[in-house]
Design a protein that fits this description.
With 125 residues, this protein is of the alpha/beta class. It has a single domain, classed as DsrEFH-like (Hypothetical Protein Ychn, Chain: A).
């Protein structure tokens, strides 16, 4: 049985905050269940990793917890976040602008390596 889970955040966009909570909620749940979890941020989702972006958007109208709050929950459970260098370049983001929860850079080859490894399962948002 696979005991590792990798997420690719490709269509998650800070401009559509109602879509941004679920991946982090699910990643937190998987980590709490004892799975190793990684999240890769590509395209516009990478903007969630920029300081000050995710803490000002909310996935629901009740505004009980920001997207950054969900991200922090995931990180506290051991979920690792990886920023795509190509997306960083596309949005003119430097490593110094990233939230402290980012573990490093990871792009297509890292994600595909996980997908092809039989110990890993993948979810894409």
């Amino acid at each position: 049985m696979a005991n590792k889970l990798v997420f690719m955040l490709l269509t998650i966009d800070p401009d559509a905050p109602h879509l941004c909570g679920t991946p982090f909620f699910q990643a937190t749940a998987a980590a709490a269940m004892g799975f190793e979890v990684e999240m890769y941020f590509a395209s516009r989702s990478m903007r969630l990793l920029v300081q000050g972006v995710a803490d000002h958007i909310y996935p629901s109208d009740n505004r009980a917890k920001s997207v950054y709050g969900f991200m922090q929950d995931a990180a506290e459970q051991g979920v690792r976040f990886y920023a795509c260098k190509g997306a960083m370049d596309a949005f003119s983001v430097t490593p110094e602008q990233l939230i402290p929860e980012v573990c490093g850079l990871g792009g297509a080859t890292s994600f595909i390596g996980r997908v092809m490894d039989e110990e890993w399962r993948a979810l894409t948002y």
